[in-house]
Specification:
The protein is α+β, with helices and mostly antiparallel strands and about 70 residues long. It is about 25% helix and about 30% strand. A three-stranded antiparallel beta sheet has the order 2-1-3.
């Protein structure tokens, strides 16, 4: 697996806490940004730092077009 692989992911504040769903080309880098509060926005405001689920895809269009269950 390369360092850059498109993914859809879910982060949370904790059990029964606030959720955030995102799309990225580099999950490792993006999860680090969330945990360290490096980017202003929703996850920093609500202190969302725990990666709880992810799913890798072949390309970013597959991530964005993923069917919603």
């Amino acid at each position: 697996m390369s360092a850059k692989q498109p993914a859809v992911y879910m982060m949370a504040t904790g059990k029964r806490g606030t959720l955030y769903i995102g799309v990225t080309g580099s999950l490792k880098h993006r999860a680090y940004q969330h945990r360290e509060s490096l980017v202003e926005g929703f996850t920093r405001t609500y202190s969302i730092k725990q990666l709880v689920w992810f799913e890798f895809h072949e390309d970013i269009l597959a991530v964005i077009g993923r069917p919603r269950d």
